[in-house]
Write a structure and sequence with these properties.
The structure holds two protein chains of two kinds. By secondary structure, chain A is of the alpha/beta class. Helices cover 31% and strands 26% of the residues of chain A. In chain B, helix 2 packs antiparallel against helix 4 and helix 9 packs across helix 10. Classes of the chains: A alpha/beta, B mainly alpha.
Chain lengths: 336, 338
Amino acid sequence: MPAVLEIEGLRKTYKSRRRGTRNALDGFDMRVDAGQVHGFLGPNGSGKTTTLRTLLGLIRPDGGRMTLLGHEVPDALPTVAGQVGAIVESPQFFPHFTARDTLSLLAGAGEVPATRVDEVLELVGLRDRSGERVKTYSLGMKQRLAVASALLKNPKLLILDEPANGLDPGGIREMRTLMRTLAESGMTVVLSSHILGEIQLICDSVTIISLGRRVAFGPVDEVLAQHSSGAVRIRLEAVSDLPVATEALTQAGIRVTGHPDHLMLAGVDKPASVTRLLAEKNLYVSELAPIAVDLESVFLELTATAPVPGQHRQVDESTKVGGTGQPGPAGGGWGA
Amino acid sequence: MSLFRTELRRLSKRRFTRYMTLLGLLVLAAVVVGVFFTNQKIDAGQLAQAERQADQQYQEQVRWSEQERAACQQAKTAGTATDGRYPDDCSVISPPPREEIKAEWFLPSTFDFKETFDETLIPFAAILALVGFVIGASFVGAEWSTGGMMNLLLWRPKRLTVLLTKLAALLTGILAVTLPAAVLWFAGFWAVANFRGSTEKMTSGVWQSFMLTGVRGVALVLVLTTIGFALASLGRHTAMALGGVVAVMVVGQFGLGILLSMAGVRFAEAWLLPTYALAWMTKTVKLEDWNACNATYFGECKPATMEITWQQSSVLLSVGVVVILGAALWVMRRRDIS
């Protein structure tokens, strides 16, 4: 599949006399293939928004190469801008204009037919409220308007930064359906979000960024498989047999974590070997359940941003790929 | 072209633009109405009445001076004229010549188009320049602060084209208000002169002079609109322009004026911007230094003078526009948008 969006070695450095030099993007790579819904994930301050702004010509990069729809950007942005719909960060509109005026003015600036305004208003569910001023809108309604503005061009590539922010559960589901429908119609969608359950549900592939570098990428299933820990939960017929089972499993080289009524095993390649081993010791398994890894746990592991009781993680404390891989206050991140 | 039309639409749709324009036009209308009601047409009867009042005052002056001369002589005879109340020679107490007491003093105010209209173009230009400055600043400042500019750049990623198109739309809009307002201003005061004054002695030369002053007024409006726009774009907020102008006027002008005056600087007004705005409108402003004496053949002391001309003002205005707009364009091109 051809790449709709490609980024190689993107760098953006912010210099400040007081705060020194910070690398918001530190050789970041990304690739999105045509027709995909692609999730773009990263902790706060990791460089997601900086990447999107740089890609859209709002920020000048310090190095690297970017292409959109096969054209080098930012030089070719005037050529491809008509085919790229985007919302970056929170939706911002002139508060005293109505939604219809807002879209109509954008359509005028972009030479989009006025009829398209009604189409997108219908699509995002704002048709009946389109005559009201934007300042009276809730965050969710502004978010819908932002998505409408991005869809106005009927783009080939749609870039949405946190589109589900402020949406009610029904709105989130509608947004999910809309994204899938758009992808099925041939549109490529890049979705930045912190709602990882949503990303796992609707995205074909993901890129995870941490401190300005890519820490994981590829189809969602592959990323999950790569970071599956082979964890298994077992219960025995008799709870009193758990210590014996723990000893037997540990001797077999399996990492065991004991719990009052079950054991958690790590590093198990074949669950059948566990039942065989325990049966040989006359210990009978009543439940054996492989623990499926989800995107949230992979994200927390890769970015080292899982909360630790009693600690207050700071924004820049996450994983830097190619470094030690341990959480710590490595440089980079502000301005993202 | 579509961007230009869209920006014109955006400008006219903004409530601030509408309210400020309306406010400016209402103030201008109030000036015309005020002048209308404070002036009167003078007829022959009022002229004769004024002459009579002038005569009457002259007679009073004659009576008073005779009384005072008599009192002076009386005091002199009695030897009590030493308190400095009377002159040594009582004969110098005399009434003013009759021609010094003018009949016009007793006439109600009347609007002479030829003599007065030129001056009215100064408040006209000042009010519309203020309106243009504020609208210009708000037009781009609000776009920056609400994120509208970023949205627009996602659609039209040519920064300088977007900013200059916005400016072109703004100037077109301001011109679309200023030109009809100028025509109405001319017409309004022509009507005032017709009904409450005089339109006599108007020659083609006078008309030409008024037209040129009007054109300079319109140019001043456009220049200040551009400066307001450029300042707000530089600071990416309306407040940058408004704060900037307050700082310049209060600190840079009022404060500087006091400082220069305390330092006894010659022609202190030559350092103040309003002097150049006035010179631009009136073609020339003559500054006088009363601490100098230029003696005449008659032994009279005349103050030293300095002339500020409209050509000098035009250089200052041009440099101001080029520097501020140039800086706004440079920043627009170079600075990240976040």
